[in-house]
Structure to design on (716 residues):
């Protein structure tokens, strides 16, 4: 609702429904208050239980234009609508929300049937709690609701259910202890984003001909399967320039089960190949996630850029005097020189009121417009594609066609371009780098970014090229890339201009610092000739390891259990699989206390019988492999192939507790033996280099790191 024209209060404990008892007292029942509500009415619910015993008549219908609000900050704790009555098909229903009705901050319970039914319109359900229902919320018909920040628990059949032609979105919801956390059937095609499904029988079930889009969801620790796809269901689990970012891990039987005949394609998901059942193709994404960036123009005359003599990118020319802007809202904005330079070339322009709005966001269509105009000299590298969501009359149709054919942007397998979808910083940077065909650069160049651990692995090569070519300008901190943050109009203008500089078509400018040059090969002087150089450097580039105060890594030194726990926490961010455990020798102020709990609860490490952890104790090589196999749940449904251990001359020295795990680690390529590949040395104290090699290989197994050709890796 844009405005509230009327506010009504309801209190089941002290309210009164008879007209003679009002207007100073609240209503007693929501049913009567809804009867008095008209368009744009807010109904505020006081704490209490709203049930048949207090006079409610079910199902309760929230009509178009009415908002029913409890307490959003607590997800409606203590404000419960409990009960149900005959709905469509004689099914028991608690609430029906119509049109653009809203329900906020309310608990809904209906043990006999459906808690909330939405079968039309575009309602909003936000910050609610749905529990003890057969189905927590059912979306049917052609409705397109937004269900956000809602917790669904203890629903025997389904937590959320989308059927018929339902669209809409479920965003940032939590689903626990349900039969199926989210069910998507028939021809439903909603967006499921940022939801967590855990401790259900099944996390997400896709059936019929449903074609949902799943992004940034966490499907973990469900009793059977994290995600099951049946019938002719065709979920979108990521595209080459739109990685899905879902986490499917630690589910008891399988993380993903595909019962359909065609293979599913997964792009940019956190999965373990051994947890996948059925035909599944893992594809590395070529582009980063879309999120958001600034609006740009399109109708501009073609202007030939002024000739310029390029100067070295690491010593740009400072502006001689403070720059005035033609745009009234730029003033001393850090990007003013770049925006003005593009405006001089007719590549950007402002709004009718004279502003530029540098902090606004940009979508794919707007970005395509800037790319097509700014890099018009590039020849097509692929054929044209007709996108079903870009009609010839679309304002950016021509620009999208050019950007696609020139290799800057791509479409989706369903023949859509999604021009209104936003972009993030790393997506835009990689798009320009790929389109300009920048030469390759070593990934070690990304060591200049303090937040390099946030860089998606599939963007490393292109981002390294962009960094070396000077495309990346970070404001206000040159060492913070902020790869997944929303990009602004100002930032896109700077990126486009730097692309022109890289082509030698514009002079360098400097109003902000560019990232400093990284050490040519690693940042630790004591690993340059070490056998584990590539493993350690790979973890360093991901922000997972660090050196001592003198800048050395000390690869031959042992790694303590506390240090190993910290590395497991950073590298794998494991979901908890068991309750926390207090250790007598790990006080709350210990530097690794939090990481130790994370590693313990995630199944990587355990304590000792005397309730100690031994944070300063060293790890044995055998214990490293046991920790990785256990914590990552590798090959969970099958024993290790013990015949693989025959390759080790010291096979008889493997401790009994580690035999099965080391067999699995060997099969999966986690074992690195130096200097003799046939000598396992399982009871030798693991060095920092030993640990880095095993952890890096685990990241390769998860498709989160590039494969290394090292002669000491045991391969089967």
């Amino acid at each position: 609702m844009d405005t509230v024209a009327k506010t009504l209060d309801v209190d089941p404990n002290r309210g009164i429904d008879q007209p003679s008892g009002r207007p100073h007292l609240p209503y007693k029942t929501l049913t009567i208050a809804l009867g008095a509500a008209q368009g744009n009415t807010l109904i505020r619910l006081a704490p209490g239980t709203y049930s048949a015993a207090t006079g409610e008549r079910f199902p309760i219908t929230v009509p178009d234009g009415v908002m029913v609000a409890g307490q959003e900050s607590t997800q409606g704790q203590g404000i419960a609508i409990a009960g149900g009555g005959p709905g469509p098909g004689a099914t028991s229903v608690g609430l029906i929300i119509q049109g653009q009705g809203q329900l906020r901050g309310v608990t809904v319970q209906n043990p006999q049937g459906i808690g909330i039914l939405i079968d039309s319109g575009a309602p909003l359900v936000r910050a609610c709690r749905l529990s003890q229902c057969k189905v927590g919320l059912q979306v049917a018909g052609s409705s397109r609701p937004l269900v956000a920040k809602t917790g669904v628990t203890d629903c025997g059949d389904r937590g959320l259910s989308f059927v018929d032609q339902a669209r809409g979105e479920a965003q940032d919801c939590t689903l626990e202890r349900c039969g199926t956390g989210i069910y998507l059937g028939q021809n439903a095609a909603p967006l499921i984003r940022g939801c967590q499904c855990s401790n259900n029988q099944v996390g997400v079930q896709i059936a019929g001909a449903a074609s949902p889009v799943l992004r940034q969801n966490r499907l973990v620790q469900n009793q059977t399967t994290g995600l099951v796809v049946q019938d002719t269901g065709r979920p979108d689990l990521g595209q080459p320039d739109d990685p899905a970012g879902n986490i499917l891990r630690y589910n008891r039987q399988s993380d993903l089960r595909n019962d359909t005949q065609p293979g599913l394609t997964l792009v940019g998901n956190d999965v373990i190949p051994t947890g996948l059942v059925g035909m599944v193709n893992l594809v590395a994404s070529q582009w980063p996630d879309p999120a958001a960036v600034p609006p740009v123009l399109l109708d501009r005359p073609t202007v030939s850029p002024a000739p310029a003599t390029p100067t070295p990118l690491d010593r740009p020319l400072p502006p001689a005097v403070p720059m005035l802007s033609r745009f009234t809202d730029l003033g001393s904005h850090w990007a003013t020189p770049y925006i003005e330079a593009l405006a001089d070339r007719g590549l950007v322009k402002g709004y009718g009121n004279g502003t530029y709005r540098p902090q606004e966001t940009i979508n794919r269509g707007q970005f395509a417009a800037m790319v097509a105009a700014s890099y018009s000299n590039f020849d097509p590298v692929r054929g044209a594609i007709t996108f079903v969501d870009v009609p010839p009359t679309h304002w950016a149709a021509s620009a999208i066609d050019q950007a696609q054919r020139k290799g800057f942007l791509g479409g989706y397998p369903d023949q859509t371009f999604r021009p209104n979808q936003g972009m993030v910083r790393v997506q835009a940077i990689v798009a320009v780098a790929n389109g300009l065909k920048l030469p390759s650069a070593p990934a070690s160049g990304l060591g200049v970014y303090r937040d390099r651990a946030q860089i998606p692995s599939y963007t490393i090569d292109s981002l390294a090229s962009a960094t070396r070519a000077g495309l990346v300008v970070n404001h206000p901190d040159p060492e913070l890339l902020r790869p997944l943050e929303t990009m602004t109009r100002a930032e896109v203008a700077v990126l486009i201009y730097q692309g022109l500089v890289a082509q030698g078509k514009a002079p360098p400018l400097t109003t902000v610092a560019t990232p400093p040059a990284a050490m040519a090969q690693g940042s630790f002087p004591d690993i340059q000739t070490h056998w584990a150089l590539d493993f350690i450097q790979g973890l360093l580039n991901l922000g997972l390891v660090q050196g001592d105060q003198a800048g050395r890594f000390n690869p031959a030194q042992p790694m303590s259990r506390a240090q190993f726990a910290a590395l497991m926490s950073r590298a794998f961010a494991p979901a908890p699989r068991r309750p926390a455990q207090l250790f007598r020798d790990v006080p709350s102020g210990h530097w690794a206390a939090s990481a130790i709990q994370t590693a313990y609860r995630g199944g990587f490490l355990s304590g000792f019988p005397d309730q100690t952890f031994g944070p300063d104790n060293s790890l044995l090589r055998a214990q490293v492999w046991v920790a990785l196999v256990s914590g990552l749940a590798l090959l969970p449904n099958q024993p290790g192939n013990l015949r693989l251990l025959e390759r080790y001359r010291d096979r008889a020295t493997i401790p009994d507790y580690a035999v099965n795990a080391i067999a699995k680690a060997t099969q999966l390529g986690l074992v690195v033996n130096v200097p003799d590949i046939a000598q396992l040395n399982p009871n030798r104290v693991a060095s920092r280099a030993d640990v880095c090699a095993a952890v890096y290989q685990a990241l390769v197994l998860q498709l989160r790191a590039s494969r290394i050709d090292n002669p000491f890796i045991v391969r089967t």
